[in-house]
Amino acid sequence: MNLDSILTELKRERDRLSRAIAALEDSNSRAPISRKAVDHVANNSNQQKRRGLTPAGRRRLSLLMKKRWAERRKKMS
Fold this sequence. Notes:
By secondary structure, this protein is an all-alpha fold. It is built from 3 helices and no strands. It has a domain at 1-28. It has helices at residues 3-29, 35-49, 55-76. It is elongated, with a radius of gyration of 27 Å.
């Protein structure tokens, strides 16, 4: 990497940090967000990511585990 490319990268980083600082200072001057609103957003994002087992999937997993443990018991005998 030559000196010019290093300087260009550093200037980009400086500009990015300046924008981030300005955005934080601007958001700091606004009215604070209520705790209830923050919890609501957090709960919605968690619900969207969560996936559960369907009844068919739960049954399939149960049968596989029973089979696995039966094989282990056979080996122990």
